[in-house]
Amino acid sequence: ADGKIEIPIVFHVLYNSADENIPLSQLQDQVTALNEDFSMNNPGRNTIPAEFAAVEANIGVRFVLEDVIRVKTKKRQWRPDDSMKFSSSDGSDVVNPQEFLNIWVVSNMPYRGGNILGYAQFPGGSWATDGVVMDHRFTGTTQYSTGRTATHEVGHWLNLRHIWGDGGCGATDYVADTPDSDAASRGCPTYPTVNCGTADMTMNFMDYSDDPCLNMFTEGQKSRMLSVFANGGFRATM
Ligand code: ARG
Ligand code: ZN
Ligand code: CA
Question: pLDDT band for position 2 (50/70/90)?
Fold first, then answer.
């Protein structure tokens, strides 16, 4: 891929009850939020502290809504086990994953006493399960969401790790300009929140703060994502 990278999205809306069959407008709102977040046009970016605004990045990726597949399913809830990605298990089969970002929108995913908002597959996995899965309540703009869960999951889909490196101080996310952090943030932390000697970048899309408090990617994250599209990269065909 060269020039401006365009990512066509195929949504698979898997519904049992009518409210889970979310409207086109909600999917369009999700695409808008993704485009804001990946082009440094998101509404919350004016709150980013100067220290971090210095490394804020415009990823230069554009998302377009390619298609919406709607499937009525018997399943009332799901697990994060990829079953939604196969028609043989009441889901919907992936569409052309070498050219499209597939996003499955499901009812809900209870897991270990909690609820998963969304999950993603990293580059390099099986094409049959490549893409992102979203709880319909956290897709687009709703009473629970401003669309940042999909941004976080697309970050994983483009090879980004959590900002805290999924471990304590010293665990790496393989990105130099995201400061060392000890654990996932919750809620809307104030700046500075110091855990490993320096302020945590709690407003990074790859942290776990609430949607209104997730506001940036960095230049280091940008180069990690763009290398996935470069010659020899897993998504070079997009
Ligand atoms: N995979 C994470 C989860 O399900 C996504 C968290 C996204 N966080 C957010 N504030 N939107 O918990
Ligand atoms: Zn994550
Ligand atoms: Ca880092």
Answer: very low
- Edge-first strand order for the sheet with 61-72 is 61-72, 5-15, 101-106, 132-135, 118-120
Instruction: Please tell me which residue in 20, 36, 56, 153 is annotated as part of the active site.
Output: 153
Pocket test of ligand 1: the residue of 104, 119, 208 to mutate, having most ligand atoms within 8 Å of its CB, is 208
Q: Where are the beta strands (DSSP E) in the chain?
A: 5-15, 61-72, 101-106, 110-111, 114-115, 118-120, 132-135
**Residue 113 pLDDT > 60, yes or no?**
yes
Q: Is 153 a catalytic residue?
A: yes
Predicted ipTM > 0.85: yes
Tell which atom from ligand 1 comes closest to the C-alpha of 211. 10
Q: Is-contact 163 206, C-beta < 8 A?
A: yes
Tokens 């855990």 -> residue = 195
The tokens of 11 are what?
């949504």
Q: Can you give the pTM of this predicted structure?
A: 0.98
Cα 28 from chain centroid (whole Å): 16
